[in-house]
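Supplementary Methods, section 5.1.

A reviewer requested that the exact input to the structure prediction be made available. We therefore reproduce it here, unchanged from the version used in the analyses.
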Amino acid sequence: MEKNNEQQELDLFSLLRTIFNFLCNILKQIAGFCGYLLRVVFKYYYLFLIFILAAVAYSYYRTQGPFKIYEAKFTLSINDGDTDLYSEMISSLNRYLLDGDSGRLSSILQISPAEGAKMRAIGNRFVMEPQDSTLRIVIAVIIKDPIVFPTIKKALIDYFNNNDYLKSLNSVRIASLKEREKLFEKDIAEIDSLQKIEYFQKTNEIDVKLDQKLVLKTNKPMFYSDKLNLLKQKEAVTKELTAKSEVVNLINEFPPSRKPFITMRDVIKKNIAIAFLLSFFLALFLDNWKPIINYLRKK
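The structure derived from this sequence is encoded token-by-token as follows.
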């Protein structure tokens, strides 16, 4: 029994030693490969320097003058229509920009070709406000010149408000709200009439309790709670008719800042990483070009 235990301990120790040696060999190979890479970088340091300087120069060039772009946003309340329709409308406009057809986009938005040529992209996202259950769409536009933002913002708002389908939906909504407003006004007027009748037909009753305290009681239903509820509902309808008369309404806007949307810092990080990888693979090829050529020539 003791011999079996000793044999098991020896086997376990041998297994652990084998795993340890295997891991050490892997670490040595990784360290040797890293050392080789460092040697290649040091050997062809001039190549890395040239590529990195070229990446810096190209990044500076791509973030100056006509290459500068700016981002602006504005929020609209969606008074009628579903989100899928608005998303499709925005996607269709952005598709013209992706295809480089700014002329067609200018025609749709009814702006000048010069203003349309300064647009680069359009995107959107939706926000639901739980306080008043208002669905909002946040539209982001990427432009070359901040001065065209007011024109483009107005053009996009008109694009929604002048859509025939959305206009028809909105007309039905407005007609329904006006009808509801009239009904509320009629109900409120009827309650006012009932209050006047009750006031002249009923009298207050005064009871005297045993503790000699006077308690004023009334039997006339003055309809205060009913009238107050109707007034609140009518106020909500009137508010919607006033503030949400169009298909969409502008809630707020965030004009583009002076800082470009894509800065040199953003571009230079990406370009330097690409330049380093390109120079690294080129250095590996130069360091092993003979074996590679021999391998390719081998039949």
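The first strand starts at residue 70 and ends at 78. These observations are discussed further in the main text.
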